[in-house]
Write a structure and sequence with these properties.
heterodimer; A: alpha/beta; eight-stranded mixed β-sheet; 12 helices; 32% helix; B: alpha/beta; four-stranded antiparallel β-sheet; 11 helices; binds adenosine-5'-triphosphate; binds adenosine-5'-diphosphate; binds iron/sulfur cluster; binds magnesium ion; ABC_transp_ATP-bind (chain B); nucleotide-binding (chain B); ATP hydrolysis activity (chain B)
Chain lengths: 349, 415
């Protein structure tokens, strides 16, 4: 067992008045999550009915293009939504049966870092430039665990070591700008793991990194996840990364999960035209001269959503009904849904 | 997990090092390490095998000098196969200075250090490599935004580094750039018409004033935008549409060469394909040559005929793109390609993945000899002592700057 998890046993956070957790309930259960932004341009439903579960030791990918609601989903789960203008207007986010949305501010704060932790895309802006890396890591232990400065520093070195930063004892007093992009992302991971969370949300953790560094980071994440049996929620727009590491996938489009399934099923036989088109529009490093199919047009503006299916203006299969009726979540199979009226007509390429 | 760490990889058999091509030591009298830069004769050898045998050796010797008057004469159309762009021994060192009053040079960032490239008409040369390896500096040198420390850049046989004034301006017309970020590269206060037509203000002879509006509308149409939107501002367009505006602007002067620095990196996957297909269409219609810089190796595989892999300011592998993707011989290329995730869960864990240790060294203080040696699992003493030349090696038809170049398929699953 790691040092960090042993340490956690010493001082459990106070959970006064908090509902009892049910250890047989799923690790994380998001049900019909609704988030809206009230802006001058109108109300934007950034997340509109997201539902999924995440079990310990599993990886769920949330895939979608920019603006589809991935980060807002993560922020709502983490309890760090920018409010105002953002509001959770419905749904539940349960950790072992306890709806975190119903907890008070203090109970929620105590869960951040120790139950759910998050890694952000842009490590440089997530780290404070005026404090050393060691100080920022140590702060987790001083604030949450009441450790002395000296002990916290020792923990910080252990964490840097854990994320395989060479010469951790020397680097602990460096400032973020003295680290390379890949190393800063490791520091972010160290910080997220400090309080030994059960759920780790990684929001585009490698998007800003080179492919060889991305490989290092993904490998590190996968190892740490296995070691600690964390549930990993991986937010990405990269279908290659998903194929490499995820067990399950939720494909988001304009605030909705349009298709959700175990990874292998989606790639083999997508059951939504959007997923299928995406798969056909990405070039592959291992294939020569494929035709790239194009998804015409642009995603809709959230404040001016088309009636019916939100993908209809771009869908090669769209029919009259699509412009009138929003497709519900059809059960394609156990563990598998599609929001397309004609899901059974979507065939693999 | 079946991922192999670089260190576990079994050593491959070393081909004999050809003593004739090993440079003498690590640098010349000026302190500039010219090892990786094949001098012109070697450049010719490189090029001869870099393509698929279609062309003749390119360097120096056979260039036809087109004498250029400063009046705008339409340049003669080159046959496919002739070089529109030739880069020889290109070097850019940014001085590192110290002191405020008396600025002393204390070192140099070797951003580009001896690069040779050839680009033929209608051809796409992909340039890949990690952040900081010198891709954008190379593009800036070619477009004239930076002055080279040394080396030559020939466009249709004319050396841009020697031209001045009107001649330079005229020659520059032929090589234009599409930038990475469609959000910041367009002036928000200018209309689309002004943006695309701006090059005509500098090169006033290209289109007569009264014909410019119509020409801009033709360009909008060419890149798939509505010609009626000529009076709109950039913020009224999406990222993909803005990139089309950037392309239309680059095409205004009817260049033969388009430098694309990460042209689709800022775009969403569903929009990327639109822009890639547009670039391919324009190449077919206009016979354009592309220098396509990108860190996305899948996109480059899709679009490039020829490939140059850069590491710390140098090209380490160069030649036919298909050949390099299928059988890279330089360890760095192998590591780079093996790290690209393939969107097929059936292949998970089956790739011959090489995970590199450590970071790229600083270009202000690069390792001696082979610059990749600090991260290379095949490195031997000779790698620190002798700079491997970029040249064709045994068993492979394309050029590789590795003493121990050896083919290895890394992008396909090993069944
Ligand atoms: N004006 C400058 N002064 C000093 N150093 C510079 C300058 N411009 C670039 N460099 C350095 O030259 C090296 C190459 O930079 P360049 O921008 O060409 O990299 P790149 O390959 O385009 O990277 P990326 O993939 O991040 O765009 C880097 O180490 C960079 O810091
Ligand atoms: N603080 C905010 N204020 C207003 N709108 C927001 C805010 N944060 C996100 N949004 C909107 O919510 C939608 C989803 O955003 P996000 O979840 O960040 O997308 P992504 O899938 O790229 O992570 C977008 O339309 C975005 O503009
Ligand atoms: S419901 Fe209609 S428009 Fe929507 S994805 Fe299915 S076929 Fe396309
Ligand atoms: S020459 Fe460079 S790449 Fe080749 S084996 Fe030596 S260190 Fe590695
Ligand atoms: Mg996001
Ligand atoms: Mg660059």
């Amino acid at each position: 067992m790691s040092i960090v998890s042993r340490m956690k046993k010493q001082t459990a956070p106070s959970t006064s008045g908090r509902p009892e957790a049910d250890s047989s309930a799923p690790l994380l259960e998001v049900e019909n999550l609704q988030v809206e932004f009230r802006t001058r341009d109108g109300v934007a439903k950034a997340v509109n009915g997201v539902t999924f579960t995440l079990e310990a030791g599993r990886t769920r990918a949330i895939l979608g293009e920019s603006g589809s609601g991935k980060s807002v989903t993560a922020q709502a789960i983490m309890g760090i939504l920018d409010s105002p203008p953002g509001y959770v207007t419905g749904g539940a986010v349960r950790h072992r049966g306890v709806d975190m949305l119903k907890l008070n501010r203090e109970q929620r704060r105590l869960m951040r870092g120790s139950t759910v932790a998050m890694i952000f895309q842009d490590a440089l802006s997530a780290l404070n430039p005026v404090f050393t890396v060691g100080f920022q890591l140590g702060e987790m232990f001083r604030v949450h665990r009441g450790m002395s400065r000296k002990d916290a520093r020792t923990k910080a070195i252990e964490l840097l070591d854990l994320v395989r930063i060479p010469g951790a004892a020397q680097r602990v007093d460096d400032y973020p700008h003295q680290f390379s992009g890949g190393m800063r992302q490791r520091v972010m991971i160290a910080m997220a793991l400090a309080l030994d969370p059960e759920i780790l949300i990684a929001d585009e953790p490698t998007t800003a990194l080179d492919v060889t560094v991305q490989a290092q980071i993904m490998k590190l994440l996968a190892e740490l996840q296995q070691e600690r049996s964390m549930g990993l929620l991986l937010i990405t727009h990269d279908m290659g990364v998903v194929a490499d590491v995820a067990d399950d996938i939720s494909v988001m489009y304009a605030g909705r999960v349009v298709e959700q399934a175990p990874v292998s099923e989606i790639y083999d036989a997508p059951a939504h035209p959007y997923t299928k088109s995406l798969l056909e529009s990405i070039p592959r490093v291992d294939l020569r001269g494929q035709e790239l199919s194009v998804i015409k047009g642009l995603p809709p503006t959230l404040t001016a959503m088309p009636p019916g299916c939100s993908f209809a203006p771009r869908c090669y299969m769209a029919r009259e009904k699509c412009g009138q009726e929003a497709p519900p979540a059809f059960d394609v199979a156990a563990d598998r849904i599609s929001r397309c009226h004609y899901w059974d007509e979507v065939h693999p390429a | 997990m079946s991922k192999k760490s670089a260190k576990d990889t079994p050593r491959e058999e070393n081909p004999p090092v050809d003593a004739a091509v090993v440079p003498d030591g690590t640098g010349d009298a000026t302190g500039k390490d010219t090892g990786a830069a094949s001098p012109a004769p070697d450049g010719a050898a490189t090029e001869a095998t870099a393509g698929d045998g279609a062309g003749t050796p390119a360097a120096g010797a056979t260039v036809t000098e087109t004498p250029r008057a400063s009046e705008p004469v339409a340049p003669p159309v080159l046959d496919k196969g002739e070089n529109v762009l030739e880069v020889r021994d290109l070097v850019k060192h940014f001085p590192i200075t110290q002191g405020i009053v008396l600025r002393r040079k204390v070192g140099a960032v070797q951003a580009v250090d001896g690069i040779n490239l050839d680009l033929r008409r209608g051809e796409t040369l992909g340039i890949v490599g990690e952040s900081g390896c010198g891709k954008s500096t190379l593009a800036k040198l070619l477009i004239g935004l930076e002055r080279p420390t040394s080396g030559t850049i020939k466009v249709r046989g004319q050396d841009l580094t020697e031209l001045r004034g009107g001649d330079l301006l005229a020659a520059r017309r032929n090589i234009q750039m599409v930038f990475q970020d469609p959000y910041t590269s367009l002036n928000p206060r200018m209309t689309v018409g002004d943006l695309i037509g701006e090059p005509f203000e500098i090169h006033t002879d290209v289109v007569p004033r009264q014909g410019r509006r119509q020409r801009v509308q033709e360009l909008l149409d060419l890149v798939g935008l509505n010609p009626d939107h000529i009076n709109r501002y950039p913020h009224q367009f999406s990222g993909g549409q803005r990139q089309r505006i950037g392309i239309a602007r680059a095409l205004a002067l009817e260049p033969e060469v388009l430098l694309c620095d990460e042209p689709v990196s800022a775009l969403d996957v569903s929009i990327q394909a639109q822009v890639i297909n547009l670039l391919e269409k324009l190449q077919d219609e206009l016979g354009l040559s592309y220098l396509f810089i990108a860190h996305d190796l899948s996109v480059v595989r899709h679009i490039a005929d020829k490939l140059g892999v850069m590491y710390l300011g140098r090209v380490v592998e160069y030649g036919n793109a298909e050949e390099i993707y299928e059988a890279p011989t330089h360890p760095y290329t192998q590591a780079l390609l093996s790290a690209v995730p393939v969107p097929d869960p059936k292949l998970r864990g089956m790739r011959d993945e090489i995970v590199l240790e450590g970071d790229v060294p600083s270009p202000a203080n690069p390792p001696s000899g082979c610059r990749f040696r600090t991260r290379c699992w095949k490195a031997e003493d000779v790698c620190a002592e002798e700079t491997p030349l970029l040249q064709v090696r045994e068993n492979s038809r394309h050029a590789s700057a590795c003493h121990f170049a050896q083919k290895r398929d890394v992008v396909h699953g090993s069944a």
